[in-house]
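Reopening this one. Same input as before:
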Amino acid sequence: MSALWIGLLVLGVFASLLMVWRYGGLPCPWWLVPLLENPYVESVAGASTLIERAGIEPGMRVLDAGCGPGRLTLPVARRLGPNGRVLALDLQPRMLQILARRVREAGLANVEIVRARLGDGALPAEAFDVALLVTVLGEIPLRLTALREIHRSLRPGGVLSVTEVLPDPHYQPLARVRALASEAGFRERSLASGWLSYTLDLERTAG
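Same output, byte for byte:
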């Protein structure tokens, strides 16, 4: 088999995997972590930028929903300091294993790791000042249910910060996120947008 045919075969397999990932409602698998952690993602949705946009301050309680291997969890934990706490939630054991190892290596004592699916009721009520949902919403089959659970988990006036990045296969258009958030009971607070990404900050309303 020629190199050309081998290359086409590899591309075909990769394209098929992306289609299954996109339309099968599957979360990003652990072996595709480099797609989550690379200079491109850092340039358009870097951890420090998202922390600033969400208004995360020392001493807060933060939910990192769909935390994956902890691209945001560790910087958030450092920002919060010893009096703050971040709950890192994900469904995939391998992702959480990577995160747990990184937390140990970093010597962080303010990270709680929970394996659960958003929308299943695992989150405590009125527990968080800020919730982060970064390139995760499109991977959730029951999106409205998940947003309602996050709404309940935030303290009154708490903020849900939703970030979407192109070319994520599960990218959610801004209009769709706005509609879902409104139905879940959120009120829009601010929007930071560019050609390749946006962050929509939403405030929990009463109820």
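So the earlier flakiness isn't reproducible anymore. For the record, The chain has one domain: 28-204.
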